[in-house]
């Protein structure tokens, strides 16, 4: 295999690192022919010494922006080789320097904690010690695209008034305005026409069904209902303790998306041992607004059941049916909810999740459900295969 052959061209101790870690990685050299070719290319580039040069970091950072791993959505020998090549470079960078390469820093910090890499690196100590990054104080990225848009609006604003000179007499201005209208129409009628025009345009768009946003607005602004929440089956691919927060886990969770796994931060360290989280199937809340958790952005929330006597009595993961698949849609029983489409993203100002959440509970059967506080009707939370459950809790709160 090309990738395995290219390892022999690596210099020590990087060669030993890649060989040792690859032995503990499933599909270390790729699952498909395409992935195998990409792994071989990455390893060959590392061996050639062109990948981890300081002057190459900017391009490498751009490559890693949409990626969790170098190849596809799983750990390979390419990540081990890239980690080893980058280690001596990143270990010398000051915060201001690695802040300027956020995707690269995020990638390196993630892969250096993966068990196969950490095990191999520790065996070769002190060649590849763990590097600690000050991610909590990472400066916020500036959105450079906004200022031009504001300027364009300011420049376009005066356009309607350019037909009249600021110094023109009031009589001439009124004549010009009147000439654009019917002889019987005055200035007030002209304004009314302008106000009515957008309404007609909007009506045409609605009638044609071309503007989906127009239909979504009433749904988001209406009474909060559970079907607005996007729940999906996910699987934890990787998990580690947050380097800057002892009570937080950082997970890579696969929700069956083409973009790859999502980074999710959960405050479960004190309640669920890490070995019980690894490779676990779970229920994820996938349309919350992404939030920074001690320097790491979280793109979903893990749905958990809290014992009716409080957190100190225990927290456990809500589990989908045993035959559920990654990415399966999770919905609420009831004709008004089953076929509803969740919002693309919950608006934090609307407090939709916070309004609906008090009705989340587990029944006497340990099945997860939402109980309507007004009608007391019960709507179990389920996939097409079956109902989601909390393993041991009855009357638990779900959040």
Automatic annotation (TrEMBL):
Q: Which Gene3D superfamilies match?
A: 1.20.1050.10, Nucleic acid-binding proteins (2.40.50.140)
Indicate, by first and last residue, each region the UniProt record lists as having compositional bias (Low complexity): 159-168, 212-224
Q: Where is this region: Disordered?
A: 139-226
Where's the GST C-terminal domain? 1-130
Record has Isomerase as a keyword: no
The UniProt entry, under PROSITE patterns, shows: GST_CTER, TRBD
* GO molecular function terms noted in the UniProt entry: tRNA binding
**Which CDD domains has this protein been placed in?**
GST_C_AaRS_like, tRNA_bind_EMAP-II_like
Query: A Gene Ontology CC term for this entry?
Result: methionyl glutamyl tRNA synthetase complex
Compositional bias segments (type: Basic and acidic residues): 139-158, 169-209
**Keywords of this protein's UniProt record, alphabetized?**
RNA-binding, tRNA-binding
Extract the InterPro entries matched here: Arc1-like_N, Glutathione-S-Trfase_C-like, Glutathione-S-Trfase_C_sf, NA-bd_OB-fold, tRNA-bd_dom, Tyrosine-tRNA_ligase_regulator
Q: Where is the TRNA-binding domain?
A: 225-331
Q: Which domain of life is it from?
A: Eukaryota
Give a Pfam family name: Arc1p_N_like
Query: Can you name this protein?
Result: Nucleic acid-binding protein
């Amino acid at each position: 295999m090309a990738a395995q052959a290219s390892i022999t061209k690596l210099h020590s101790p990087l060669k030993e690192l890649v060989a040792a870690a690859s032995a503990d990685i499933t599909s270390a050299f790729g699952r498909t022919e395409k992935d195998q070719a990409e792994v071989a290319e990455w390893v060959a580039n590392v061996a050639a010494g062109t990948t981890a040069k300081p002057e190459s970091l900017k391009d490498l950072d751009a490559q890693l922006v949409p990626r969790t791993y170098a190849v596809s959505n799983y750990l390979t020998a390419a990540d081990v080789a890239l980690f080893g090549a980058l280690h001596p470079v990143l270990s010398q960078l000051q915060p201001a320097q690695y802040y300027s390469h956020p995707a690269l820093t995020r990638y390196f910090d993630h892969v250096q904690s993966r068990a196969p890499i950490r095990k191999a690196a520790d065996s070769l100590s002190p060649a590849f010690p763990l590097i600690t990054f000050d991610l909590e104080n990472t400066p916020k990225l500036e959105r450079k695209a906004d200022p031009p848009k504001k300027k364009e609006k300011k420049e376009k604003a005066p356009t309607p008034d350019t037909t009249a000179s600021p110094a023109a007499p009031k009589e001439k201005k009124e004549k010009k305005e009147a000439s654009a209208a019917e002889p019987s129409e005055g200035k007030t009628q002209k304004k009314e026409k302008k106000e009515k025009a957008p309404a007609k345009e909007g009506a045409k768009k609605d009638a044609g069904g071309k503007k989906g946003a127009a239909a979504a607005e009433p749904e988001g602004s209406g009474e909060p209902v559970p079907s607005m929440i996007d729940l999906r089956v996910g699987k934890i691919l990787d998990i580690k303790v947050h380097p800057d927060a002892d009570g937080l886990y950082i997970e890579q969770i696969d929700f069956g998306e083409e973009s790859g796994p999502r980074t999710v931060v959960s405050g479960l360290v004190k309640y669920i041992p890490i070995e019980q989280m690894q490779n676990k199937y779970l229920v994820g809340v996938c349309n919350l607004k992404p939030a920074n958790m001690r320097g790491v952005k979280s793109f979903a929330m893990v749905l958990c059941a809290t014992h009716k006597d409080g957190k100190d009595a225990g927290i456990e993961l809500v589990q989908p049916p045993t035959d559920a698949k990654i990415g399966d849609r999770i919905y609420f029983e009831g004709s008004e909810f089953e076929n509803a489409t969740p919002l693309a993203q919950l608006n934090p100002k609307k407090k939709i999740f916070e309004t609906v959440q008090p009705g989340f509970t587990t029944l006497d059967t340990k099945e997860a459900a939402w109980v309507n506080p007004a009608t007391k009707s019960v709507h179990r939370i389920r996939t097409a295969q079956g109902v989601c459950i909390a393993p041991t809790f009855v009357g638990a709160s779900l959040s």
